[in-house]
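Final report, section 2: Outcomes. Of the targets proposed, Outer membrane protein assembly factor BamE is the one most frequently requested by collaborating groups, and we therefore present its record in full.
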Amino acid sequence: MKKSVLILCAALSLGACSLFPPPYKVPVTQGNLVTQDQLSQLKIGMSESQVTYLLGNPMIQDTFKPNEWHYMYTSKYATSETKQSEVTDLVLTFDSGSLTNIKNN
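The predicted structure is given below as tokens.
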């Protein structure tokens, strides 16, 4: 009798944990917030310093491809109030310090 009451109490107390709301998770955003307005201002032939002034420093600048800049944005546990980037993956290619290719994935 004692054993069955103990098992019943343990089952009820463990089942009550699911009644609580899930814990708060902090939204984690990484990368560059790039808007469509900023993207429309990008022009072929701009210098590296002009692009940096417009978009900021790139998220990834590959050692083996120094003329290729990657502007990326990721968000985890985002809510409706979390700012989102309109562009999630932007690749800019330079040649002799001048913008030659814009690739928006």
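Helices lie at 2-15, 36-41, 48-55.
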